[in-house]
Amino acid sequence: MNWRSIWAIARKDLMEVRQNKAAWGPAIIVPLIFAVIMPIFFVVLPQVIPVTDVERELGDIQTLMNSLPPNVKLIFDGLKLEQMFVIYMAAFMFAPMFLIMPLMFSSVVGADSFAGERERKTMEALLYAPTSDLELFLGKVLAAVIPAVGISWITDVVYIIVVNTTSFPLFGKIWFPLAPWWPMMFWLTPALAVLGISATVLISSRVKTFMEAYQMSASLVVLVLALIIGQVSGVLFLGVEMVLVIGTAIWLVNAALIYVAVSQFKRSALIANL
Amino acid sequence: MNKIIEVKNLERTFGENRAIDGMTFSVEPGEVFGLLGPNGAGKTTSVRVLNGILPPSKGEVKVFGLNPATDGEKVRQQTGVLTETPALYERLSARDNLIFFGTLAGITDAELPKRVDEILAFFELSQRGNDKVEAFSKGMKQRLALARALIHKPPLLFLDEPTSGLDPEAAQQVNDLIAGLSRSNGQTVVLATHNLLDAQRLCDRVAILNRGRILALGSLTELSRKLWPVMWVDVTLMGDLAEQAASKVKALRGVIQAQGEKKSLAIQVEAEAVIPQVVSALADEKFPILKVNPRDYTLEDIYFALQAGEA
């Protein structure tokens, strides 16, 4: 295995993505909304609106708390209504939204990898390079995983800073992130990024255009939407154990997907599809 | 000397379609070998099979003694390919394109910047090295694509329609570069083209293809001799004496026929060696000879004769 070639492919793809405004647009706007605008809205708002209005808008927040698992309920013990609202929103309700990012960015770069190369008619020259099929595949995967995980982590850090800064007057201390965020950031986020890219590279090596590949891989977001619905409805709650279990399941799916992708990833199939 | 490429009974099918149908040929070191044929003749598919991008359906292929289907990486380390479209990364600079392909070709980090500078200079692209390729003209893109194919100094170069889509001036530039490669570097070149003039100018030998099959193989002289074993020589006289001269030379040994009209005499002879005897006989008879011109067949003549025969 020639890691220098793998890095060269990844680096080249990253340089190309950097020049692609269609890819970078969402990479700037979405994190900005998730990490800055949304938290300011739901962390600052309860601090300026009277508690009674918050309660009126949310219904009985205590009833909502009762639906939480016992270990999660402990976090809210003895807190003021505004504090409960901020923690509930910032740490729990909003958490699954952050899982959209690794999927989204890995899909954009992944779709741009093979389908984009085919669309721009650069694929053939790449296939004539003295690299193995596996090195080509890994280079493409790496090119998508690095920005997807990197942007997700940067967004997480910005979110942590914004939430703690804006809620400091309310709590008087740094309280975020809570425990489930750690496995979410370092276990579930990379798992979703790898899932997104493996599926997208597999798809994009079979379709003709970037948009076709992107649209097909975008359907993976359904997974995250299921988590959001589960969280909101109280059916599924993203505690530490649940995040670890979901992350492990996704890594297992990734292993199977990568195995299939690598075994089906052949130069001859790619060139025949040009 | 060992052959660079050896192909025996090669077949490549795509479903029902036979892209290559029983090709056999070899390429010698330092040779410029042409794969000549219309679109769909099997030229590009041949280049792909020879580089291990596509496995053959049947037959035997050896490049540098290696089987490209199983040793594709090793074969591609020793080949450079200019694809039909330049296939450059247009959002990147010329330099970044070359660095990328140079890295994949295994040039070390220490050598790579120097090599990139060298090749940019060779193709007269140094001034534009840091510009994005999207701003380049077609001719510049083609030169850069050729630079990319040569960045690792491969002993074997495949050029697929190298002048396709270029204006005459840019095409001339590219052809001059190709001619120089074989002459000065001793590189073996396989030129896949439907451009007969390019092939005639550049190739030592050609394989004329149609529908995946080789119709004829050899040098221009060999092919014209095969197709037209007898040859014509045109003689121009000073004065309207051609009719008279024709009747004199008809009797000579080795002359098949002679036709004269005014100053122009056309003589069909059995072999090249007969021509001096004809000229000598005419001179002995005091016919004032102005010009003697043995007719040469162009690759175009050969190509169309073969394709017409095939049809």
Plain-language structure description:
- The complex is a heterodimer of chains A (274) and B (311).
- With 274 residues, chain A is mainly alpha-helical.
- Chain A has one domain (3-272).
- Chain A contains 14 helices and no strands.
- The longest helix of chain A is centred in the middle third of the chain and has 39 residues, at 133-171.
- The radius of gyration of chain A is 21 Å and the shape is elongated.
- Chain B has 311 residues and is α/β, with parallel strands linked by helices.
- Chain B has 2 domains: 5-225, P-loop containing nucleotide triphosphate hydrolases (Rossmann fold, 3-Layer(aba) Sandwich), CATH 3.40.50.300; 229-295, Alpha-Beta Plaits (2-Layer Sandwich), CATH 3.30.70.
- Chain B has helices spanning 43-50, 72-77, 94-104, 112-122, 138-150, 168-185, 196-202, 220-227, 242-249, 274-284, 299-310; strands at residues 5-14, 17-27, 32-36, 58-63, 79-82, 156-160, 188-193, 205-210, 213-218, 231-237, 255-261, 264-269, 289-294.
- In chain B, the strands form 3 sheets. A 6-stranded mixed β-sheet of chain B has the order 5-6-7-3-8-9, with helices on both faces.
- In chain B, α5 runs parallel beside α6 (168-185) and α8 (220-227) crosses α11.
- Chain B is elongated and about 75 Å long.
- Chains A and B meet through α1, α8 and α14 of A and α2 and α3 of B.
